[in-house]
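Example 3.2
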Amino acid sequence: MSTPAILFDIDGTLVDSNYLHVHAWQRAFAEVGLDVEAWRIHRGIGMDGSSLLEELTPEDSSDGDDVKARAKDLHSRFYLETAHLLKPLPGTRRLLDLVAATGLQVVLATSAPEDELALLRKILDKDEIVSAVTSSDDVDTAKPRPDIVAVALQRADVGADRAVFVGDSIWDIRAASRAGVECIGFESGGVDLFRLQNEGAVAVYRNPGDLADHLDDSPIGRLAASVAQS
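Structure, written as tokens:
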């Protein structure tokens, strides 16, 4: 059996991108004639894009499918226009290096489209320690469905009991829980400690740097210790 794995979401977890997504969606909705408040968009960040659109677009529109398709394409365009503002969250590279140094697998379990994923991987600049990667191409519907987590486990060749998921949204926690995987939450995506805990996060940290500072006492540290003892 393969070494246990730490499955990392990327947007809002490793890269400071959530509010760029909010802005891109708001511009996209405005372009197709929809007035959607930013807080409602933020609440859906991390959810599968099609599900987000279902939540935020009117159901009674005769051209609803066309509006959703246009909004989705515009979001991608507007988001990529802000690529120069993307940066790793504090402590991201240090955390990934520390996890790799424990001997655990580093897996990028994201549902980002391939073009966005390529950009995010370039920003992370840690491909040499990543053992497996997922993208939106791997599933029909992403979070909060557990499918993307299941694909990540399969590619890492580990069972749910030999993995920990790290994410920043309630959708990450719900997806991980449905796949039977413990989830660590980060507040860096804009969701507060209490909401993440109430959703079922087994531990919550401010950002990657905070987890790196407390790695030995975290669920990741405990998983690494159990492997070392076995």
